[in-house]
Amino acid sequence: MSTDGKRAVAYIVSMQHGLDTWTFRELEALEDALSIHVFPLRYGNGPYMPKPDWYCHRFRPWRIAVQQPWRFLRQPRRYVRLLAEAVRTRSVTDLLLAFDFAQAMAARNVALIHCVYGDHKFFIGYYCHKLLGIPLSVALYGYDLRANPNWR
Fold first, then answer.
1. DSSP class of residue 18?
2. Which residue from 11, 40, 44, 75 puts its CA 20 to 30 A from 56's CA?
3. Is residue 13 over pLDDT 70?
4. In the sheet where 7-15 sits, what is the strand order?
């Protein structure tokens, strides 16, 4: 439960030009029942921005880099296992972002992770799921099923 007494859901999204219309409307429909937490990979202004009462986590690359030695020292086996998987799947950047996102999700008692599209957002969500042990869902569309962004 989040601080407002509702189950917390984390949406991993792209916000290059704000939220897309569909995602914004979906979050509006859910906000009465769930505490909304938005985790954008890109952040830019647009017509549909997160509402003031939705938590929006903006990562900082310098913070992610500085925290890596601490993460390794805290759980070296887990860190090396996840890093080896990320190297094999060419998703190291996704893992590094997941460390940051998972820390913020844990601090906010997120109970479910949802990824909008099966590209990098899904890889990040997968690693967050591995780190936190909470359920993961994803919205897949046609191109998501045949275009792994990490194989390029």
1. B
2. 75
3. yes
4. 55-56, 34-43, 7-15, 110-116, 136-139
